[in-house]
Design goal:
Blueprint (H helix, E strand, L loop, with lengths): L3 E12 L2 E13 L3 E5 L6 H8 L8 E3 L2 E4 L2 E2 L5 H7 L4 E4 L13 H11 L5 H14 L5 H6 L7 H13 L5 E5 L7 H18 L2 E6 L2 H7 L2 E6 L2 E7 L9 H8 L26 E2 L2
Parallel strand pairs: 3-9, 3-10, 7-8, 8-9, 11-12
Antiparallel strand pairs: 1-2, 1-4, 1-5, 5-6, 10-11
Helix pairs in contact: 3-4, 3-6, 6-7
């Protein structure tokens, strides 16, 4: 059974020169799996994730033929109903924790606040659950981190804290918007291992938004490649390097590879036809 179904999702914004279509007819389904969405900056990856949670505010406009969370129609929900979905059923980890965490509240208070939103237990119980959640995301000294402010922590630790906060309500779907882009390789792998373990143990669906094709090919189960607001190709993650679409091939060829040395990297040459090309489903 699919946890999420999206058909013909569109996101547009009015501009002085007319309507700009940022996401143009994206369709996909999500089961209990790790689905990667990759593409260049501006391809519509993050807007797709935000549109699922209806976080696009006016004058932006979101439309779809279908956007369903199980049997629930997300587009038909009121703002009050969507507030019960955000964080509770679908959680989203933003790209940079520095802009997501409250700088004047300790980490512990912020996580406890997330428990309070879920109406779980008294203050003592929420404190204990917070310490347990910090341990679950591999933070070695939870007591110290509990009392710390966000600026006192590293980027990797801040990202783990965000993951902990988003997993408190035990959502069915986690949307991770480039959660490792600002981290070094060692911390990247730690964060990915934490997410992989939590998703596997809880039977969740993960939408992993990234621009790193190597990372997505090794971490995800399936991959959607986006260009100019459209999905131009879909394939299994372990078959990404056999992708058929020239845009995907161009992205792959423009990256250095240790197993295939090259004196000069290719430059991606774009074809205007890619903006209207139909999905090449290689899955």
């Amino acid at each position: 059974m699919n946890l999420l179904e999206v058909e013909n999702l569109k996101v547009s914004f009015p501009t002085r020169s007319g309507v700009f279509d940022a996401v143009r007819g994206v369709s996909f389904s999500l089961g209990q799996e790790r689905l990667g969405i990759v593409g260049e900056s501006g391809s519509g990856k993050s807007l797709t994730g935000r549109a699922i949670l209806r976080l696009i505010r006016p004058p932006g406009r979101v439309s779809a033929d279908r956007m369903a969370l199980g049997d629930e129609d997300l587009l038909a929900m009121s703002d009050k109903q969507m507030r019960a979905v955000r964080g509770q059923k679908i959680s989203m980890v933003m790209q940079d924790p520095k802009f997501s965490l409250n700088p004047v509240m300790t980490v512990g208070e912020q996580i406890m606040e997330a428990y309070a939103q879920s109406r779980r237990g008294n203050r003592r119980e929420r404190r204990q659950k917070t310490l347990e959640m910090l341990e679950a995301v591999a933070i070695r000294d939870p007591e110290r981190v509990f009392k710390a402010y966000p600026h006192e922590l590293s980027g990797g630790m801040g990202q783990r804290i965000m993951i902990a906060m988003m997993l408190i309500p035990n959502p069915g779907i986690l949307i991770a918007d480039e959660p490792t882009s600002a981290l070094d390789v060692t911390v990247q792998m730690q964060v990915l291992n934490i997410m992989d373990k939590l998703v596997s143990e809880r039977g969740m669906g993960l939408i992993f938004i990234s621009h790193d094709l190597n990372l997505v090919s090794s971490f995800c189960d399936r991959v959607l490649i986006m260009y100019a607001g459209r999905v131009v190709e879909s394939c299994r993650a372990d078959e990404l390097y056999q992708a058929k679409h020239p845009y995907t091939q161009g992205l792959l060829n423009s990256m250095p590879r240790l197993d295939v040395p090259s004196e000069r990297l290719s430059v991606l040459e774009r074809d205007p036809a890619w903006r209207t090309a139909e999905l090449d489903d290689a899955s």
